[in-house]
Amino acid sequence: MNVKHDDFRDGFINSSGEEYTTTRYYDPENISNIGTSKKVKKPGKTANKFLSVILIILLSAGAGFGGGLAAMYYGQTILGLNTVSEIKINPNDDINTAEAIALKVIPSVVGISTSTEITYQGFFGQQRGIQSGVGTGIIVDEKGYILTNSHVVNDGKAKEIIVQLSDGKEVEGTVLWYDKSIDLAIVKIEAVGLTPAELGNSDEVRIGSYAAAIGNPLGMAFDRSVTQGVISGLNRTITVSDGQSQLTMEGLIQTDASINSGNSGGPLLNSAGQVIGINSAKAQSGEGLGFAIPINTAKPIVDEIKTKGEFKRSYIGIRGGNVADFLQINPGINLGTKTGVYVAQIYSDSPAAKVGLKEGDIIIEVEGEEVRTMSQLISTLFRYRPGDTIDLTVLRMGRKMNFTVTLTSMDDTIELPRTQIPQ
Cβ(101)–Cβ(212) under 8 Å? Predict the structure, then answer.
């Protein structure tokens, strides 16, 4: 079952007024930072179970909650921001773990309010308006770098971004980088005295371990709310939908810590108060089904932006799609595998072209690690930087072949139409 979102309350918005189109073979970066979106075909039934979920940004926040409800502020005067950076949490101490986490992390959690110009079909025809949204972010560097979800900033299309700090101060933010395909973004603010959060290691997370979430559920009236639970599952695959387009997200952390609209971009934390994930989505039906992007996915991006002020994505120079999707429309073809990435196009002068990859090849491994889908290939490539070499294993006419590819940055290679940026 797919979720259909109300365009003015929840989910992704096609704020440019463009129509979505359906395609079997898609360029993953068309759903990235180029300002256009495509509808990815709903996957068929496979061994992976896809849940119907909603992205947890709260749009048009405040309606029905503004009057009569007291805002809960955990500000500088309450927490004493001068000492929180030195807090070390030992779960065995005689103190409530959630209380210690709140004391340590809340100064690093921000509210993100956005305004985006949208075009919609009204009673008198096509009209333009302003859509407001509220999400959460986490300070990752004292220089003002904030990690959040791409959909919190409307995939780079937000006209205005206001960041509210834990002391109540509001500053203007700008989107420094975003990528819709992995639903992450970096917002930059100019401020002093910021407290960055401590980033953990999501590879060390175990099912059943303690988890806490901090965010702004239902808007800033409940800012920096703390909930707790456990890690319910790892390496989850879900499909998020707004009724027009779909996006498959893989390798997610599942938690039963309460997550609601407005929590998007907020931290998922371990018992030491370290960020292990970025809360991104929840199941529309049922309780206790929240999903977070592992922090290790974001670490290379954060590190490069902190040191260089920008992030250049490495690429191999292909356009492709899931083998599973290809077999759905070509059931009589035997590719020698039911999973992997089908290479539909090789871009000229790209790393893939230089080593001899061909259209029709199927990428099944990167550095010995199995690749089952295009979204998994995208996430894997984020671990590497331009100039790195990686070993690709492909199937060509049923025969395994190995290629050593030197990755480059798209900025340093060919110029391509915005609708054909390769992976």
Answer: yes
